[in-house]
Design brief:
Layout: H1 5-17, H2 27-38, H3 43-53, H4 57-66, E1 78-83, H5 86-90, H6 93-104, E2 110-111, E3 117-122, E4 134-136, E5 139-141, H7 146-159
Parallel strand pairs: 1-3
Antiparallel strand pairs: 1-4, 2-3, 4-5
């Protein structure tokens, strides 16, 4: 599999950052970077990353199945994650989840027809002190209300 020169440089930097025999520590960052470039973690990506760090594709799949931020199918250009774990739940995270589902007419890990927005219910973002929280790609939003969520979604639509 061929990646962009920029991604190849990132991979090289990652792989040389770890002592010999410890390259498997680069697995999650490599998968995240590849996912950002390719759109999902495909079988080709799994095979290529496994080869580069010296593990089996099965070992990569084991990691892939554990981490919710890694996706086997493409998500939207803007991936909206809504936390519904205890702190967020107690502060309205469940209402935000219901709101985004209704507003976009989507279910968990579904993508709008135009491929622009996907949504995902997640367990915890580590932002309990700022609950309820959402994440759009790599941007966090804290103390989110349904009105603020609407503003965020409208802003994403304007970026298209």
């Amino acid at each position: 599999m061929t990646f962009s020169p920029e991604l190849e440089a990132r991979f090289e930097k990652l792989l040389t950052s770890y002592p010999p025999g410890r390259q498997r520590s680069a697995l999650i960052p490599m998968l995240l970077y590849a996912q950002d470039e390719v759109g999902s973690v495909s079988d080709e990506v799994i095979d290529e990353v496994a080869r580069r760090i010296g593990v089996t594709p099965l070992q990569v799949n084991e990691v892939l199945s554990y981490y919710t931020m890694l996706h086997r199918k493409p998500m939207g250009k803007y991936h909206v994650q809504v936390c519904t774990n205890i702190s967020c739940l107690l502060n309205g995270g469940d209402k935000l989840w219901e709101h985004v589902c209704k507003r976009l007419d989507l279910g968990n890990k579904e993508v709008t027809e135009d491929g622009q927005i996907s949504i995902e219910e997640v367990e915890c973002m580590g932002a309990c002190s700022w609950a309820p929280a959402i994440q759009v790609n790599y941007d966090f939003h804290h103390f989110v209300t349904p009105e603020k969520l609407d503003e965020i979604l409208d802003g994403l639509r304007k970026k298209q």
